[in-house]
Amino acid sequence: MNHLQNIKARLYFTYLKDKTELFLYVKPHDTSGSAMIYRRSPGDAAMNLRIQALLDNIGVLRSNLEIWILLYPPEIYTTTIYVPSNTSGLELGEHIREKIQEKRAYSVNYDLENYLLKKRDNGSGQEMLTVTLLGKNVISRIRSLLYKNISKVTFIGDGLQFLNVDEMHFPQTRGQNYEVILPYDEIYYTAAFRSGKHVESCGLPHACSPYFGCYKLDPQQVYLKCSYSGTSIDLPLIHPVIPKAEWEEALLTPAAFPNWFIARNSMKRKNYISFVKLLQTDQKDEHRIYSAQHYLNQ
Asked: I want to staple 110 with a disulfide (CB 3.0 to 4.6 A). Which of 16, 114, 133, 190 is the partner?
């Protein structure tokens, strides 16, 4: 509890291909409001110096910092499969491997031994299993980039799980399957949700055009795509989520929009999937950290 009370800032760290992004959120304190700083830089050995310069600029000690590692496809992969409720832990592991290999052309690049699993009863004797896997080189790369700050990492996971929309603002999504589209540089990411639960993440690197059918997507926006099955609601198939005024008040560079939106949503979510224990484990420890049996027993 004392550790959480001492945290004054959260640094969101993202790497995509040859670039990294740093988004620092400083919590409100006394009469001072929150502050946000965004930086984009190469992913190289100078990363810790850049982090320290960012903290010095805003006046935050490293001891009062926590780091969140946000990952996106293909560095991380989330999908959902369905299995009989009476499937054993050993059978489940084999089932996951088979299904992932069917869906992913390059499944060999993922760590199929250490994965996170969310289990939900789908009715009719079925389990809905949401599986999240890391690329095999992700943990080693995080270690090499953040070696001085590695103890500050408190979250490693799929950043797209925070794209869920607020049902209070979008009541038409209750009980529905929907997608959220995030334009991010030349890539469009989509995250699928079922009744507000994250079930899949996908990157669309081939979708370089801002046109999705008859809709043109603004890069500084997030979009809800919902078919509203079983309802008589007459709304566009795709429509924006964020009022422009909210983003403009942040006073950040346009490139910061995806990090800003995800950071804001992550502060509202308590139940999220994180691989942080895998980073804290000794690299020589070869035992299976995230076994199917462990998560099935929760």
From this structure: 133
